Structure formats: structure tokens, C-alpha cells
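Box 3.1 A note on notation
Throughout this textbook, protein chains are presented in two layers. The first layer is the amino acid sequence; the second is a C-alpha cell string describing backbone geometry. Keep the layers aligned when reading.
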Amino acid sequence: MLRASLDQSRNSQFVIILTASCVAVAGGCDPQAGPAYRGQSLLSVAGSVEISGQHQDDLIPALGFMNHGSGELHIVDVEVRGEFPSEFFLDVYVPPPEAVYVRGAEALPDEPQLAVGYIAAVTEDHPDTIRFASGASSGSAGAAVGVCDDQGDCTVTCPDGGCRSGSEWCTGDGEQCYSEELLCPEPDSPPSDCMLTAMGDPALKLEVWEHFAGLSENYMVIYLVEPAPAGSWTAAVLGSAQGLEAGYHLIKVRRLSAAEEEAGNACADQADAAAAAEFNAEHDTDYPLEFLQGPYACTAPRCDRDGQNCVVDPLCSVPEEELEALASDFERLSLLHNLEAGCPLSPVEMTPVEDPASEPVSVRIGANVQPL
């Protein structure tokens, strides 16, 4: 299922008024083809921007699409005309890159491919992709040690070979990392006396906010490779009972309240129980729901708080090569039962903007949005 955390904003804020059609400002939109004619715009936006926080003077709008496999945000540039940021036009002429296409529900193969994007604020010299790398620091076997004498006087020294400390920055999938190891003769040695050894791409160490101010908090941009028919899981999660055509869509998002989340969880529990019953009937099994919900691996026996009434994991008797198929089959049934029961399919409510030309929308861009 699509999941999101759209909670809070930081100092960087970006407000943009969008419309889905051209308005005659600063020369308007010339429908006639000319030497620089690029074809019909896939998404046209007219608006104004208010920016506070870092990068106030060099931000431009763009679309950002997340590749969760690589932990990268792919930037789709837009063509901007007019007096940015007060009054401007932007046009999107290209679809998102294929690397960001996913299915909202992998267990339902008939669902259309899509890309989940956001309106972003970036610097003019931004890279094509922005990698979200997290860092961690640690000492090693050569870390400094404290030695105390009989009078309780202590000193901190490095062992033979010096003190070693390391830091590492990796993308979300762990496929790309940059590491540094610092070797110093003493704990308080100045940097000039230490030796730095590095491995990997140093760009992963750069602060992500160097070229990027955040993503839209209350609106998403969805690109559908194929139509999402009425009644499909994708159409339902995007808030459209009648289905959605292929192409770009502006989607308003609202975080569910605590009461709505509680009711949604109760609905999902009932739907998953029904899915488990259907699963066991189809497979001639009697797996408890908590094991079908994962993780799909042999785990230690589950006991109550007193260590009694232990239940042995029934998946321990299932060959490893069959576990993935079981997981996919139960997920398929779970999605279908949740869809049929009308349970919330996401922690946010999504509503397509049918006609933003007649009902302009305000988009907030913040630094703490975690992409779906």
C-alpha cells in the first residue's frame, strides 16, 4: 500500500498558486508553432511564489519523483516564463523518467504503472537526481582508551597505530556508500596531524538541502502511464470513483485525523481477517492472521508476557522458495478485501483536483515531507 508521512514543515516554505491552463500574462500563451515549439504541454501552470528560509534568491520550481529502489529524487525540469516568482508560467513537456514508475499495488498485476511526484523547489544549478543518503559514525578497535593510576588521575591515549574513527553515508537501498576513516596519533590531534582515507562517491556526503528546499506538503503530482479504471485499486487510493485518464494529475492530500486512523485500522483488521480466511480456504491451511501479516520468515515461537502459551511459527515448515509466493498471495487478498470494505488505503486522503483552472490551489512546500 502507498504510505506517507506528511507531518510538518521547516523554515523553508514555498507557496505556489497553480492553474491548469494558460492565462495571458507577460505575453500569454501563443498557440502558434514556432522555431522553438516543443509540442503540447503535458502540464501547464500559472502562478506566483512566496519563499522564505534558505535559498531564497535562487530557487526555481520543478517536479520531483522518488525512486525508492535507489533512494534518489529525480528532478523533472519545467519551462518557466514571465516574472518569476511574482507572476510566471511553467510548462511540463516530458513525462517522468522510467526509473520512477511503480505499481501502487505490486500484488495486483492489472493495476496501471504510475509515478508519484511532488512540486519541488530547487536551485538553478541542481543535479538531475538528488540522493537521500543517511550518515552514521562509529569508532573502531583503535579507539581512544582511558588509563587511570592509583591516585585516580586518568589520561586518554591512543593505542599503538593511532586512534581510528569512521563515518559512512549510504543511500536508502545500501547500494551506494561513501566512507571516511580518520587515523590520528592522539585523541586531540589537530586535523593536520591526522590521515584521512576515503572510499566511494563523496557527493553522498553533501547536505541534501544544498540544491533542494523541500517538497509540496498538501499536493502531489501523479503521472499515470495507463488509465486507472473505475473500481481499480489505484483509482480508489487516488480518490477517484470514476477512474483517471493516463497522464499528469494534481492530487490534493490531507493527513487523516487520529480518529480516522483508528477507524481505518479497525476496518483493515476486519478486512485482513476475511482475507486470511479466504487464504486458508484456498491453500487448505490454518495459518493465524499474525503470521500471514509477516514477516515471511521463520521466527522464534511467540509467547505471552509470562512466557507461556507459545505458538510455533507455522512458516518454519514452508520451504524458503515458497514464502515469497505466499506473501504475495495474501497481500493480493488483503488489498482486495480492504478495497471492497471501503477501508482507507493510505494514511492520507487523496482527492484529484478536477478543474484547478477555475479553483486555484495553494501548495505548501516544506523540508520534512517523506515521499510516498
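The longest helix spans residues 258-283. Confidence is low (pLDDT under 50) at residues 1-35.
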